[in-house]
């Protein structure tokens, strides 16, 4: 199971999305060589899946966790551009996001700006390469017991911060 499926389950757990400030950043880096400066993404020839995610997030106005999980589940290991486009459209539809707005963002200046901003954020936040997915809780890297990134382990770690959410076993919610 891809980590995005675990993230989706965690995000939708009772009260978690409201109690936690999720920051989802695609691994987009600035690469400089003798011929210029380029934007690169990990494990892919293009940054198209990441750009579609950034556009989906911009359209939604908050982390597009369901879109990300859909993309991760549907994309083959080495997708063609046509496959990426097709999956992005299907994921937009299945998550009730406006495909026209996402595709316009992807092809236009907004997409260029989003990908540049994402690369600058990652370059500044992590000047050296980091492993992915990188999980941070309160801006500290979360290192799970032998890399156990299950729903239960991550929920326990989030609840241990003292958040108030129905999914946390010792949490009291006052309405």
Query: How are helices and strands ordered from N to C?
Result: HHEEHHHHHEEH
Question: For the report, how would you describe the main beta sheet?
Answer: 2 strands, antiparallel
- CATH fold call: Cyclin A, domain 1
Mean of residue pLDDT? 88
Number of helices: 8
User: In percent, how helical is the residue content?
Assistant: 40-55%
Tell me the count of domains: 1
Q: pLDDT under 50 segments (min length 5)? A: none
CATH architecture grouping: Orthogonal Bundle
Q: Over all CA atoms, what is the radius of gyration? A: 17 Å
How many angstroms does the end-to-end distance come to?
A: 36 Å
CATH hierarchy, class: Mainly Alpha
Query: Order of strands across the biggest sheet?
Result: 1-2
Fold and architecture overview:
By secondary structure, the chain is mainly alpha-helical. The chain has a single domain, classed as Cyclin A, domain 1 (Orthogonal Bundle). It has eight helices and four strands; from the N terminus they run H-H-E-E-H-H-H-H-H-E-E-H. The protein has helices spanning 3-11, 16-19, 48-60, 65-74, 81-94, 99-107, 109-125, 151-159, and strands spanning 28-33, 36-41, 136-137, 140-141. The strands form two sheets. The chain has a two-stranded antiparallel ribbon with strand order 1-2. Strand 1 (28-33) and strand 2 form a beta hairpin. The longest helix has 17 residues, at 109-125.
């Amino acid at each position: 199971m891809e980590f995005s499926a675990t993230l989706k389950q965690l995000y939708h757990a009772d009260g978690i999305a409201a109690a936690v400030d999720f920051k989802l950043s695609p691994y987009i880096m600035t690469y400089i060589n003798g011929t210029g400066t380029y934007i690169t993404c990990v494990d892919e020839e293009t940054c198209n899946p990441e750009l579609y995610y950034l556009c989906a997030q911009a359209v939604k106005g908050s982390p597009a966790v369901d879109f990300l999980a859909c993309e991760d589940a549907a994309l083959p290991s080495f997708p063609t551009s046509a496959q990426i486009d097709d999956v992005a459209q299907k994921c937009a539809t299945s998550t009730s996001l406006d495909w026209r707005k996402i595709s316009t963002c992807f092809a236009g200046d907004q997409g260029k700006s989003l990908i540049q901003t994402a690369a600058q954020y990652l370059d500044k936040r992590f000047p050296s390469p980091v492993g992915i997915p990188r999980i941070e809780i309160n801006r500290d890297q979360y290192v799970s017991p032998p890399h156990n990134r299950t729903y239960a382990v991550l929920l326990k770690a989030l609840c241990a911060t003292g958040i108030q959410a129905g999914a946390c076993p010792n949490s009291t919610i006052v309405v």
